[in-house]
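Schema walk-through. Below, the input block comes first and the output block second. Nothing else is stored per chain. Lengths vary across the set, and this one has 289 residues.
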Amino acid sequence: MLTSAQAGVAPGRVRIRRVRVGEAIAIAIVAALAIMSLMPLYWMVVTAIKQPTLVMKMPPEWFPRQLSLANFRDLFARRLLGRWTLNSAIVATSVTVAQLFVASLAGYAFAKKEFVGRNVLFWLYVGSMMIPGQVTLIPRYILMAKFRFINTYWGLILPSIAAPFGVFLMKQFMQTLPGEIIDAGKIDGASEFGIYTRLVLPLSKPALAVLGIFTFVSEWNDFLWPLVITNSSEMRTLQVGLAMLQEEVPMAFGLLMAGATYAAIPITIVFLAFQRYFLTGLTVGALKG
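--- output ---
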């Protein structure tokens, strides 16, 4: 049997070809998985721009020949769509800003300050993430009722501004910040809050972006709590309002997919706007130096 050298082929070229074949197979597998993960999104958009009479056609048209905006016209004709969108924007933005402030403050304290019971308090707080949200649903509702926050923005916003995940993320990231920077700020006469705002926050932009994206997407897509805490159509968030449409027009799948596409636009814009910080924040906290 002839070897690669006897056949006139250099061993190095054989290895390069094997590496290239392996890379091609890996790329093909990743591409196939990416296509599979994007199929629901593609089908949502395609269904939203189909003719309403062709939505239930069998076999389904994966590449529709006739496109229509009738589903979106029907969606935008709904009287409360603008109010639902405004409610979701107010709640998601308010919770995101408040949680970034609270989580960064707590994360800075847990990461860079020494006080009695710091580790015990931190792990007890983080351990509360293991409690399912359904378990605390009734206590939260009772608490909001005692404060008379039912069917108000306060009731939608307040229970979410101190999430343990945000504190955990910020604490883990701020541990990687060099302590010499904080010491230098103290030598220059900066106050604790000045060190936090002028030194810690600017260096924590990647982690803040990651937490901001996670929080905004979670609050924008939240369904259960807004459904429970609101009792009027005017205070519904977008996700709850779109679910109400399913009861109003149960078989209008084109309208529902148009609503889902419309609801996905803001979170897509947020992710694309902060994508650079998002990718950096996911990796930099794991590095040690």
